[in-house]
Design a protein that fits this description.
- By secondary structure, the protein is of the alpha+beta class.
- It is 43% helix and 17% strand.
- It has one domain.
Length: 150
């Protein structure tokens, strides 16, 4: 059933992100299991909010937004399945930045479930490192037409 929802999301232009997308790009380096969550991202539009609501997604109450990168608006979770959607203010810039990440950088610096991740780094510190990495990428991959709140 979760695969059906993922297919609907993709059919409506929601883009796969996270470790599942990286596993598609680097199948010899990044392995995910059937129990790995699904991460998607989309532009923050009324139409996308209607689609999410119809499919059973709810906005999470993110009390600490200091870990949000500069393009992240909100996070939505599915009520029954391990699927998350991040709404963003500029998915083209985000997509250019995300797709630029090589396997070594993802495994070594950005993947919270990486088998090589230093578990002694507190989650909050790790989250802020990931946020900062992405914010630098956004500056690098922003085009003249992008509206990015730096």
């Amino acid at each position: 059933m979760s695969k059906d929802i993922c297919d609907i999301l993709r059919d409506h232009g929601f883009r796969l992100g996270g470790s599942r997308r990286m596993a598609e790009k680097y199948p010899d380096r990044i392995k995910v299991g059937v129990d790995t969550d699904w991460d998607f991202y989309c532009e923050n539009t009324v139409n996308n909010h209607l689609i999410m609501r119809a499919l059973g997604f709810e906005k999470i109450d993110a009390k600490n937004r200091s870990y949000f990168d500069n393009l992240l608006i909100d996070i939505y979770n599915h009520q029954r399945f391990d699927i998350q959607i991040l709404t963003r203010c500029n998915i083209e810039c985000y997509s250019r930045a995300f797709e630029s990440i090589d396997a070594d950088t993802f495994i070594g610096r950005l993947w919270k479930s990486s088998p090589t991740r230093d578990q002694s780094i507190p989650k909050e510190i790790f989250s802020s490192m990931v946020r900062d990495h992405f914010n630098v990428l956004f500056q690098k991959y922003a085009s003249a037409n992008d509206s990015i709140p730096f």
